[in-house]
Amino acid sequence: MSTADTAFATALRLHRAGCWAQAVAVYDRLLGDPRLDPVQAAQAYANRGAALRRIGRADEAAASCIEALVRCPELAEAYANIGAILQEADHPLAALDACRRAIALSPGLYTPYLAMAHARQDRGDHAAALALLRRAATLAPATPSVRYNLAEALLQHGLFEEGWRVYESRWQARELALTRPVCTNPEWTDQDLTGKTLLVVEEQGFGDTLQFIRLIPLVKARGARRVILHCRAPLVRLLAGVEGVDAVTTALPDAVAYDLWVPLMSLMQRLAVAPDRIPAAMPYLAPPPDAVTRWSGALPETDGLRVGLVWAGDPRLGHAAASRTDARRSLALTQLAPLLTVPGVCWVSLQKGPAAAQLDGMAIHDPMPGVADFADTAAIVRQLDLVIGVDTAVVHLAGALGVPVWVLSRFSGCWRWLLDRDDSPWYPTLRLFRQQHPGDWAPVVGRVREELLRRVRLPRHDRGPA
Fold it and tell me: What are the CA-CA distances from residue 97 to residues 72, 92, 269, 295 (Å)?
């Protein structure tokens, strides 16, 4: 094997392992070799572009793919990469064109179908997106990224049985960067739980945990003697009070402490929960007494509505895919200015993180600097008449507490909110205000303002849950 072949194989191995920055470094060294033949150089440039895209360097990624096409104009992989780059840059029509070219050159290549599916979702054509993802899965049935994206589309369409089964591929989908828990004892798939201790391990975002913790009582009803919950520290005090949870820990316990374990978000599949059987008895969360005592009387007195506000998520700056999603779901506080002019509202910030700095000079009460964890936030939220927010953990918390919550949802919304509805089977008190056009928040804010004006005018006893 030549030196170039060895370097190419090394870069490809790193690429497939998700070590994209290291792969780029090897591709750079490889492309500096003047002896590299044009076909291999074209493939290296295309692969380099794909790796650069994964680490958020979109302009360099596009330039690298163009270099590939200069050397090999019929290289389908380069067109597929350009399609993915254009889709992520919010140019869905151009992305579709690039992907069609890739498919024409190589009909058996799965990557353009994946990018086309995302572009179709960006255009609101979810049926076409699902069909494209099924085609990608036919071409690459063992590819985790394809299976994971198919799973989310299936769930968004309410196809829970197939969707949750395919969702088990999430651990291998490198764009999620999930680490599967390392537990010594067997995983619970459907074994008899009678008299057993089950370890439930949380995963992904705080909102995911708050949403799916409702399933613990169903597990306990299967006969489990004890349920131990593993979660991060900010959730411990709040989740210790969940029905069916016997113990909470921030460290994975020794094998002698439990018999079986299960990832929290696998419970939907293991329990075979259908869309019309989602446990929706509210509230299923409650702040602990010490948090209630601490925050009692901490909010301003008002004769009007107390409304909580959260306008941005975690920017996840070190994670390119998550950062793009956050940019689509989050707003600047100034974009919500029309809401702040509604009379009879006492505004309470529920915002944490860098976006909280936008509060400077605003007439919004901000208790969050004193908040230590979700138990504190829950004690504040329970004192509110309404929460208005983008799709973050706070709206899940409000829903789980049974507090009315209005969610401002991006155009290509999260799978959990399903399609073509403004309510949610997950939370009876939740109402969705969806974008009608990608990135266009002004009409959404306008609709929320009109509803808020109507709600303020109602007598307090007539305001209802949402």
Answer: 18, 9, 37, 55
Domain 197-277 in the same topology as domain 3-140: no
Residues 427 and 417 sit within 8 Å (Cβ to Cβ): no
**With contact defined as beta carbons under 8 Å apart, do 321 and 361 qualify?**
no
The CATH label, of 3.90.380, 3.40.50, 3.40.91, 2.20.100, for the domain at 197-277 is: 3.40.50
To which H or E segment does residue 434 belong?
strand 430-434
346 and 365 Cβ atoms separated by less than 8 Å:
yes
Please report, for the chain, the start and end positions of each structural domain, with discontinuous segments joined by +: 3-140, 197-277, 289-462
Report the distance separating Cα 64 and Cα 202, nearest Å.
39
- Read off φ and ψ for residue 388, nearest 5 degrees: -120, 125
* Segment 229-276, tens digit of pLDDT: 999 999 999 999 999 999 999 999 999 999 999 999 999 999 999 999
Q: Which residues contact 294 (CB under 8 A, 6 or more apart)?
A: 376, 379
Its pTM surpasses 0.90? yes
Which tens digits make up the pLDDT trace of 306-322?
Answer: 999 999 998 776 666 77
Q: Is residue 437 helix, strand or coil?
A: coil
pLDDT, tens digit, 9 for 90 and up, residues 129-150: 999 999 999 999 999 999 999 9
Contact assessment for residue 61 and residue 78, using Cβ atoms and an 8 Å cutoff = no
Cα 155 to chain centroid, rounded = 13
User: Which residue is associated with the tokens 């792969």?
Assistant: 23
Q: Which of 133, 204, 199 minimizes the C-alpha distance to 170?
A: 204
Q: Which CATH architecture has domain 289-462?
A: 3-Layer(aba) Sandwich (3.40)
Q: Assign residue 437 a region (left: φ > 0; alpha: ψ between -120 and 50; beta: otherwise).
A: beta
- Residue 439 has which token pair? 């990135």
Residue 18 CA to residue 124 CA, distance in Å, equals: 30
In CATH terms, is domain 3-140 a member of 2.60.120.10?
no
